[in-house]
Amino acid sequence: MTNDARSPTITVEDIRRVPKVLLHDHLDGGLRPATVVELADETGYRDLPTTDVHALSTWFRGGAHSGSLVRYLETFRHTVGVMQTQDAIMRVARECAEDLAADGVVYAEVRFAPELHLERGLSLDAVVEAVLDGFRAGSAGTPLHLRALLTAMRHQARSLEIAQLAVRWRDAGVVGFDIAGAEAGNPPTRHLDAFQYIQRANGHFTIHAGEAFGLPSIWEAVQWCNADRLGHAVRIVDDITVDPDGKAILGDLANYVRDVRVPLEMCPSSNVHTGAAPSIERHPIGLLRRLQFRVTVNTDNRLMSGVSLSSEFATLVDVNGYGWSDIRWLTLNAMKSAFLPFDRRLDFINDVIKPGYAELVSAESA
Protein backbone atom coordinates (compact mmCIF):
# COMPACT_ATOMS: atom_id res chain seq x y z
CA MET A 1 0.00 0.00 0.00
CA THR A 2 1.36 3.39 -0.96
CA ASN A 3 2.16 5.63 1.98
CA ASP A 4 0.48 9.03 2.24
CA ALA A 5 3.67 10.61 3.55
CA ARG A 6 7.26 10.45 2.42
CA SER A 7 9.37 7.50 3.56
CA PRO A 8 12.68 9.20 4.41
CA THR A 9 14.06 6.14 6.16
CA ILE A 10 14.39 4.29 2.84
CA THR A 11 17.65 5.39 1.25
CA VAL A 12 19.33 4.62 -2.05
CA GLU A 13 21.75 2.41 -0.15
CA ASP A 14 18.86 0.49 1.41
CA ILE A 15 17.27 -0.05 -1.99
CA ARG A 16 20.57 -1.14 -3.50
CA ARG A 17 20.63 -4.07 -1.07
CA VAL A 18 17.27 -5.56 -2.09
CA PRO A 19 16.71 -7.66 -5.23
CA LYS A 20 15.50 -5.71 -8.25
CA VAL A 21 14.45 -6.48 -11.81
CA LEU A 22 15.20 -4.30 -14.84
CA LEU A 23 13.39 -4.71 -18.16
CA HIS A 24 14.18 -1.52 -20.08
CA ASP A 25 17.83 -0.51 -20.26
CA HIS A 26 19.82 0.40 -23.38
CA LEU A 27 23.38 -0.88 -23.60
CA ASP A 28 24.57 2.15 -25.57
CA GLY A 29 22.89 4.43 -23.02
CA GLY A 30 24.73 3.08 -19.99
CA LEU A 31 28.44 3.50 -20.68
CA ARG A 32 30.75 4.81 -17.99
CA PRO A 33 32.01 8.27 -19.06
CA ALA A 34 35.62 7.22 -18.51
CA THR A 35 35.06 4.24 -20.77
CA VAL A 36 33.74 6.47 -23.55
CA VAL A 37 36.93 8.55 -23.38
CA GLU A 38 39.24 5.52 -23.24
CA LEU A 39 37.49 3.71 -26.08
CA ALA A 40 37.54 6.83 -28.22
CA ASP A 41 41.30 6.94 -27.81
CA GLU A 42 41.73 3.21 -28.45
CA THR A 43 39.50 3.08 -31.52
CA GLY A 44 40.48 6.41 -33.05
CA TYR A 45 37.08 8.03 -32.61
CA ARG A 46 37.72 11.79 -32.81
CA ASP A 47 34.28 13.36 -32.57
CA LEU A 48 33.76 13.57 -28.78
CA PRO A 49 32.77 17.05 -27.63
CA THR A 50 35.43 16.78 -24.88
CA THR A 51 37.85 14.19 -23.53
CA ASP A 52 37.56 15.43 -19.96
CA VAL A 53 35.61 12.71 -18.15
CA HIS A 54 33.69 15.00 -15.82
CA ALA A 55 32.89 17.51 -18.57
CA LEU A 56 31.79 14.70 -20.88
CA SER A 57 29.45 13.30 -18.24
CA THR A 58 27.95 16.75 -17.82
CA TRP A 59 27.62 17.13 -21.59
CA PHE A 60 25.74 13.85 -21.96
CA ARG A 61 23.28 14.78 -19.24
CA GLY A 62 22.81 18.29 -20.58
CA GLY A 63 21.93 17.01 -24.04
CA ALA A 64 19.64 14.36 -22.63
CA HIS A 65 17.76 16.75 -20.34
CA SER A 66 16.60 18.94 -23.20
CA GLY A 67 12.95 17.91 -23.07
CA SER A 68 13.16 16.62 -26.65
CA LEU A 69 13.35 12.94 -27.62
CA VAL A 70 15.10 13.84 -30.89
CA ARG A 71 17.79 15.84 -29.05
CA TYR A 72 18.03 13.10 -26.45
CA LEU A 73 18.73 10.51 -29.14
CA GLU A 74 21.48 12.64 -30.69
CA THR A 75 23.77 11.92 -27.73
CA PHE A 76 23.94 8.26 -28.77
CA ARG A 77 26.05 9.16 -31.79
CA HIS A 78 29.09 9.18 -29.52
CA THR A 79 28.42 6.08 -27.45
CA VAL A 80 27.64 4.08 -30.58
CA GLY A 81 30.67 5.67 -32.24
CA VAL A 82 33.07 4.05 -29.77
CA MET A 83 31.30 0.66 -29.92
CA GLN A 84 32.41 -0.51 -33.37
CA THR A 85 34.91 -3.26 -32.48
CA GLN A 86 34.38 -6.59 -30.75
CA ASP A 87 36.69 -5.67 -27.89
CA ALA A 88 34.93 -2.35 -27.30
CA ILE A 89 31.48 -3.95 -27.37
CA MET A 90 32.57 -6.72 -25.01
CA ARG A 91 33.99 -4.19 -22.58
CA VAL A 92 30.83 -2.10 -22.56
CA ALA A 93 28.69 -5.21 -22.04
CA ARG A 94 30.95 -6.49 -19.25
CA GLU A 95 30.88 -3.15 -17.43
CA CYS A 96 27.10 -2.97 -17.86
CA ALA A 97 26.79 -6.32 -16.07
CA GLU A 98 29.19 -5.22 -13.33
CA ASP A 99 27.29 -1.99 -12.73
CA LEU A 100 23.88 -3.67 -12.60
CA ALA A 101 25.14 -6.35 -10.24
CA ALA A 102 26.63 -3.68 -7.96
CA ASP A 103 23.23 -1.98 -7.92
CA GLY A 104 21.50 -5.11 -6.61
CA VAL A 105 19.78 -6.08 -9.86
CA VAL A 106 19.16 -9.84 -9.92
CA TYR A 107 17.54 -10.10 -13.35
CA ALA A 108 17.86 -7.73 -16.30
CA GLU A 109 17.04 -7.57 -19.98
CA VAL A 110 19.38 -5.10 -21.67
CA ARG A 111 18.67 -4.07 -25.24
CA PHE A 112 20.88 -2.95 -28.10
CA ALA A 113 20.61 -2.45 -31.87
CA PRO A 114 23.12 -4.70 -33.68
CA GLU A 115 22.68 -2.74 -36.91
CA LEU A 116 24.31 0.31 -35.31
CA HIS A 117 27.65 -1.43 -34.74
CA LEU A 118 28.66 -2.42 -38.27
CA GLU A 119 30.74 0.57 -39.33
CA ARG A 120 34.07 -1.28 -39.07
CA GLY A 121 33.02 -4.49 -40.71
CA LEU A 122 31.48 -6.51 -37.90
CA SER A 123 28.63 -8.82 -38.83
CA LEU A 124 25.32 -8.77 -36.99
CA ASP A 125 26.14 -12.14 -35.44
CA ALA A 126 29.57 -10.93 -34.30
CA VAL A 127 27.98 -7.98 -32.53
CA VAL A 128 25.52 -10.22 -30.67
CA GLU A 129 28.27 -12.67 -29.75
CA ALA A 130 30.44 -9.86 -28.34
CA VAL A 131 27.61 -8.52 -26.19
CA LEU A 132 26.69 -11.93 -24.80
CA ASP A 133 30.34 -12.72 -24.04
CA GLY A 134 30.60 -9.44 -22.16
CA PHE A 135 27.41 -10.11 -20.23
CA ARG A 136 28.69 -13.52 -19.14
CA ALA A 137 32.06 -12.15 -18.06
CA GLY A 138 30.58 -9.25 -16.11
CA SER A 139 27.90 -11.24 -14.30
CA ALA A 140 30.07 -14.26 -13.42
CA GLY A 141 30.14 -14.84 -9.69
CA THR A 142 27.25 -12.44 -9.00
CA PRO A 143 23.51 -13.02 -8.41
CA LEU A 144 22.73 -11.17 -11.66
CA HIS A 145 21.07 -13.07 -14.51
CA LEU A 146 21.48 -10.92 -17.61
CA ARG A 147 19.73 -11.45 -20.93
CA ALA A 148 19.62 -9.49 -24.19
CA LEU A 149 16.88 -7.91 -26.28
CA LEU A 150 17.72 -7.17 -29.92
CA THR A 151 16.42 -3.82 -31.15
CA ALA A 152 15.66 -2.76 -34.70
CA MET A 153 15.66 0.93 -35.56
CA ARG A 154 12.14 1.93 -36.56
CA HIS A 155 13.27 4.44 -39.20
CA GLN A 156 15.30 1.76 -41.01
CA ALA A 157 14.23 -1.31 -42.96
CA ARG A 158 16.12 -4.12 -41.23
CA SER A 159 13.55 -5.13 -38.63
CA LEU A 160 12.78 -8.54 -40.15
CA GLU A 161 16.49 -9.29 -40.38
CA ILE A 162 16.96 -8.34 -36.71
CA ALA A 163 13.93 -10.41 -35.71
CA GLN A 164 15.48 -13.41 -37.44
CA LEU A 165 18.74 -12.67 -35.64
CA ALA A 166 16.93 -12.66 -32.29
CA VAL A 167 15.40 -16.06 -32.97
CA ARG A 168 18.76 -17.41 -34.12
CA TRP A 169 20.40 -16.43 -30.82
CA ARG A 170 17.55 -17.12 -28.41
CA ASP A 171 19.11 -20.27 -26.96
CA ALA A 172 22.32 -18.38 -26.21
CA GLY A 173 21.01 -15.47 -24.17
CA VAL A 174 18.71 -13.39 -26.38
CA VAL A 175 15.17 -13.41 -24.98
CA GLY A 176 13.30 -11.00 -27.22
CA PHE A 177 12.96 -8.32 -29.89
CA ASP A 178 12.22 -4.60 -29.83
CA ILE A 179 11.94 -1.57 -32.08
CA ALA A 180 13.20 1.86 -31.01
CA GLY A 181 13.94 5.32 -32.35
CA ALA A 182 11.86 8.38 -33.13
CA GLU A 183 8.17 7.43 -33.05
CA ALA A 184 6.69 10.24 -35.14
CA GLY A 185 6.38 9.12 -38.75
CA ASN A 186 7.58 5.60 -37.92
CA PRO A 187 4.54 3.68 -36.67
CA PRO A 188 4.88 0.14 -35.26
CA THR A 189 2.82 -1.31 -38.12
CA ARG A 190 5.64 -0.46 -40.51
CA HIS A 191 7.41 -3.46 -38.96
CA LEU A 192 4.46 -5.81 -38.82
CA ASP A 193 6.27 -8.55 -40.75
CA ALA A 194 9.01 -8.63 -38.09
CA PHE A 195 6.53 -8.95 -35.25
CA GLN A 196 4.63 -11.67 -37.05
CA TYR A 197 7.88 -13.55 -37.64
CA ILE A 198 8.64 -13.43 -33.90
CA GLN A 199 5.13 -14.64 -33.09
CA ARG A 200 5.34 -17.53 -35.54
CA ALA A 201 8.63 -18.51 -33.91
CA ASN A 202 6.93 -18.45 -30.47
CA GLY A 203 9.12 -15.56 -29.40
CA HIS A 204 8.58 -12.41 -27.34
CA PHE A 205 8.78 -8.73 -28.23
CA THR A 206 8.31 -5.31 -26.76
CA ILE A 207 7.68 -2.06 -28.63
CA HIS A 208 8.68 1.51 -27.77
CA ALA A 209 5.29 3.21 -27.91
CA GLY A 210 3.53 6.16 -26.33
CA GLU A 211 6.69 8.03 -25.37
CA ALA A 212 7.01 10.94 -27.80
CA PHE A 213 3.85 10.04 -29.69
CA GLY A 214 0.32 9.56 -28.37
CA LEU A 215 -2.39 6.97 -28.09
CA PRO A 216 -2.31 5.85 -31.75
CA SER A 217 1.22 4.51 -31.20
CA ILE A 218 0.08 2.48 -28.20
CA TRP A 219 -3.06 1.29 -30.00
CA GLU A 220 -1.07 0.06 -33.00
CA ALA A 221 1.51 -1.67 -30.80
CA VAL A 222 -1.16 -3.52 -28.84
CA GLN A 223 -3.99 -4.11 -31.29
CA TRP A 224 -2.15 -4.50 -34.60
CA CYS A 225 1.23 -5.83 -33.50
CA ASN A 226 0.22 -7.75 -30.35
CA ALA A 227 3.14 -6.50 -28.28
CA ASP A 228 3.96 -8.51 -25.16
CA ARG A 229 5.12 -5.33 -23.39
CA LEU A 230 5.18 -1.59 -24.07
CA GLY A 231 8.30 0.52 -23.76
CA HIS A 232 7.39 3.67 -21.80
CA ALA A 233 3.69 4.01 -22.82
CA VAL A 234 3.50 7.26 -20.83
CA ARG A 235 0.77 8.63 -23.09
CA ILE A 236 -1.70 5.96 -21.96
CA VAL A 237 -2.61 8.62 -19.41
CA ASP A 238 -4.27 10.56 -22.27
CA ASP A 239 -7.01 7.93 -22.16
CA ILE A 240 -7.66 8.44 -18.45
CA THR A 241 -9.72 11.29 -16.99
CA VAL A 242 -9.65 12.11 -13.28
CA ASP A 243 -12.75 13.94 -12.05
CA PRO A 244 -12.73 16.61 -9.31
CA ASP A 245 -13.39 13.92 -6.68
CA GLY A 246 -10.30 11.99 -7.71
CA LYS A 247 -12.19 9.20 -9.47
CA ALA A 248 -10.41 7.91 -12.58
CA ILE A 249 -12.44 7.20 -15.70
CA LEU A 250 -10.65 4.96 -18.19
CA GLY A 251 -11.19 5.03 -21.94
CA ASP A 252 -11.46 1.87 -24.00
CA LEU A 253 -7.75 1.56 -24.77
CA ALA A 254 -6.64 2.19 -21.17
CA ASN A 255 -9.22 -0.31 -19.95
CA TYR A 256 -7.94 -2.91 -22.39
CA VAL A 257 -4.29 -2.39 -21.49
CA ARG A 258 -5.12 -2.76 -17.81
CA ASP A 259 -7.55 -5.66 -18.27
CA VAL A 260 -5.13 -7.87 -20.20
CA ARG A 261 -2.20 -6.82 -17.98
CA VAL A 262 0.04 -5.39 -20.69
CA PRO A 263 3.31 -4.54 -18.87
CA LEU A 264 4.40 -0.90 -19.05
CA GLU A 265 8.17 -0.37 -19.00
CA MET A 266 8.24 3.09 -17.42
CA CYS A 267 11.42 5.11 -16.97
CA PRO A 268 10.47 8.14 -14.85
CA SER A 269 13.62 10.26 -15.07
CA SER A 270 14.16 9.57 -18.76
CA ASN A 271 10.49 10.32 -19.49
CA VAL A 272 10.94 13.75 -17.93
CA HIS A 273 14.22 14.36 -19.76
CA THR A 274 12.68 13.57 -23.16
CA GLY A 275 9.58 15.67 -22.48
CA ALA A 276 7.26 12.64 -22.32
CA ALA A 277 6.28 13.65 -18.77
CA PRO A 278 6.27 17.20 -17.36
CA SER A 279 8.01 16.32 -14.08
CA ILE A 280 8.59 13.42 -11.70
CA GLU A 281 5.81 14.79 -9.51
CA ARG A 282 3.38 14.74 -12.46
CA HIS A 283 4.63 11.51 -14.01
CA PRO A 284 1.67 9.16 -14.58
CA ILE A 285 3.35 6.25 -12.81
CA GLY A 286 1.71 7.29 -9.53
CA LEU A 287 -1.78 7.25 -11.01
CA LEU A 288 -1.16 4.05 -12.96
CA ARG A 289 0.18 2.30 -9.88
CA ARG A 290 -2.90 3.38 -7.93
CA LEU A 291 -5.13 2.04 -10.72
CA GLN A 292 -3.27 -1.29 -10.67
CA PHE A 293 -1.82 -1.22 -14.18
CA ARG A 294 1.08 -3.64 -14.73
CA VAL A 295 3.64 -0.90 -14.11
CA THR A 296 7.38 -1.54 -13.92
CA VAL A 297 10.24 0.84 -13.06
CA ASN A 298 13.30 1.08 -15.31
CA THR A 299 16.37 3.18 -16.10
CA ASP A 300 16.28 3.52 -19.91
CA ASN A 301 19.71 5.17 -20.25
CA ARG A 302 21.83 5.28 -17.12
CA LEU A 303 24.52 7.54 -18.60
CA MET A 304 22.26 10.10 -20.23
CA SER A 305 19.81 10.36 -17.34
CA GLY A 306 22.40 9.91 -14.61
CA VAL A 307 20.41 7.21 -12.83
CA SER A 308 20.54 3.68 -11.49
CA LEU A 309 17.56 1.46 -10.81
CA SER A 310 18.05 2.09 -7.09
CA SER A 311 18.04 5.85 -7.59
CA GLU A 312 14.85 5.63 -9.66
CA PHE A 313 13.11 3.80 -6.84
CA ALA A 314 14.51 6.28 -4.32
CA THR A 315 13.06 9.14 -6.36
CA LEU A 316 9.62 7.49 -6.27
CA VAL A 317 9.99 7.00 -2.51
CA ASP A 318 10.74 10.68 -2.12
CA VAL A 319 8.07 12.01 -4.50
CA ASN A 320 5.24 9.50 -4.13
CA GLY A 321 5.86 8.35 -0.57
CA TYR A 322 6.44 4.75 -1.64
CA GLY A 323 7.36 2.17 0.96
CA TRP A 324 8.86 -1.30 0.78
CA SER A 325 5.52 -2.84 -0.19
CA ASP A 326 5.38 -0.56 -3.25
CA ILE A 327 8.94 -1.37 -4.28
CA ARG A 328 8.21 -5.08 -3.89
CA TRP A 329 4.97 -4.76 -5.89
CA LEU A 330 6.74 -2.99 -8.75
CA THR A 331 9.57 -5.53 -8.67
CA LEU A 332 7.16 -8.46 -8.77
CA ASN A 333 5.41 -6.81 -11.72
CA ALA A 334 8.72 -6.72 -13.56
CA MET A 335 9.58 -10.32 -12.79
CA LYS A 336 6.12 -11.50 -13.86
CA SER A 337 6.65 -9.64 -17.15
CA ALA A 338 10.15 -10.92 -17.94
CA PHE A 339 10.76 -12.85 -21.13
CA LEU A 340 11.75 -15.97 -19.21
CA PRO A 341 9.93 -19.32 -19.04
CA PHE A 342 7.17 -19.38 -16.43
CA ASP A 343 8.97 -21.75 -14.07
CA ARG A 344 12.10 -19.60 -14.06
CA ARG A 345 10.04 -16.51 -13.24
CA LEU A 346 8.42 -18.39 -10.36
CA ASP A 347 11.84 -19.40 -9.06
CA PHE A 348 12.95 -15.76 -8.97
CA ILE A 349 9.70 -14.66 -7.33
CA ASN A 350 9.58 -17.36 -4.66
CA ASP A 351 13.29 -17.88 -3.98
CA VAL A 352 14.77 -14.40 -4.47
CA ILE A 353 12.30 -11.52 -4.52
CA LYS A 354 9.75 -12.44 -1.87
CA PRO A 355 12.39 -13.50 0.69
CA GLY A 356 14.39 -10.36 -0.08
CA TYR A 357 11.51 -8.11 0.97
CA ALA A 358 9.73 -10.23 3.60
CA GLU A 359 11.22 -8.70 6.74
CA LEU A 360 11.16 -5.15 5.39
CA VAL A 361 7.49 -5.30 4.37
CA SER A 362 6.55 -7.02 7.64
CA ALA A 363 8.31 -4.35 9.70
CA GLU A 364 6.71 -1.59 7.63
CA SER A 365 3.19 -2.90 8.27
CA ALA A 366 3.76 -3.61 11.96
Automatic annotation (TrEMBL):
<feature type="binding site">
    <location>
        <position position="24"/>
    </location>
    <ligand>
        <name>Zn(2+)</name>
    </ligand>
</feature>
<keyword id="KW-0862">Zinc</keyword>
<protein>
    <recommendedName>
        <fullName>Adenosine deaminase</fullName>
        <ecNumber>3.5.4.4</ecNumber>
    </recommendedName>
</protein>
<dbReference type="GO" id="GO:0008270">
    <property type="term" value="F:zinc ion binding"/>
</dbReference>
<feature type="binding site">
    <location>
        <position position="300"/>
    </location>
    <ligand>
        <name>Zn(2+)</name>
    </ligand>
</feature>
<dbReference type="GO" id="GO:0005829">
    <property type="term" value="C:cytosol"/>
</dbReference>
<keyword id="KW-0546">Nucleotide metabolism</keyword>
<comment type="similarity">
    <text>Belongs to the metallo-dependent hydrolases superfamily. Adenosine and AMP deaminases family. Adenosine deaminase subfamily.</text>
</comment>
<dbReference type="InterPro" id="IPR032466">
    <property type="entry name" value="Metal_Hydrolase"/>
</dbReference>
<comment type="function">
    <text>Catalyzes the hydrolytic deamination of adenosine and 2-deoxyadenosine.</text>
</comment>
<dbReference type="GO" id="GO:0046103">
    <property type="term" value="P:inosine biosynthetic process"/>
</dbReference>
<dbReference type="GO" id="GO:0006154">
    <property type="term" value="P:adenosine catabolic process"/>
</dbReference>
<feature type="site" description="Important for catalytic activity">
    <location>
        <position position="232"/>
    </location>
</feature>
<feature type="binding site">
    <location>
        <position position="26"/>
    </location>
    <ligand>
        <name>Zn(2+)</name>
    </ligand>
</feature>
<dbReference type="InterPro" id="IPR001365">
    <property type="entry name" value="A_deaminase_dom"/>
</dbReference>
<feature type="binding site">
    <location>
        <position position="181"/>
    </location>
    <ligand>
        <name>substrate</name>
    </ligand>
</feature>
<dbReference type="GO" id="GO:0046936">
    <property type="term" value="F:2'-deoxyadenosine deaminase activity"/>
</dbReference>
<keyword id="KW-0479">Metal-binding</keyword>
<dbReference type="GO" id="GO:0009168">
    <property type="term" value="P:purine ribonucleoside monophosphate biosynthetic process"/>
</dbReference>
<dbReference type="InterPro" id="IPR028893">
    <property type="entry name" value="A_deaminase"/>
</dbReference>
<dbReference type="InterPro" id="IPR006330">
    <property type="entry name" value="Ado/ade_deaminase"/>
</dbReference>
<keyword id="KW-0378">Hydrolase</keyword>
<feature type="binding site">
    <location>
        <position position="26"/>
    </location>
    <ligand>
        <name>substrate</name>
    </ligand>
</feature>
<dbReference type="Pfam" id="PF00962">
    <property type="entry name" value="A_deaminase"/>
</dbReference>
<feature type="binding site">
    <location>
        <position position="28"/>
    </location>
    <ligand>
        <name>substrate</name>
    </ligand>
</feature>
<feature type="domain" description="Adenosine deaminase">
    <location>
        <begin position="19"/>
        <end position="354"/>
    </location>
</feature>
<dbReference type="GO" id="GO:0043103">
    <property type="term" value="P:hypoxanthine salvage"/>
</dbReference>
<feature type="binding site">
    <location>
        <position position="208"/>
    </location>
    <ligand>
        <name>Zn(2+)</name>
    </ligand>
</feature>
<dbReference type="GO" id="GO:0009117">
    <property type="term" value="P:nucleotide metabolic process"/>
</dbReference>
<dbReference type="GO" id="GO:0004000">
    <property type="term" value="F:adenosine deaminase activity"/>
</dbReference>
<feature type="active site" description="Proton donor">
    <location>
        <position position="211"/>
    </location>
</feature>
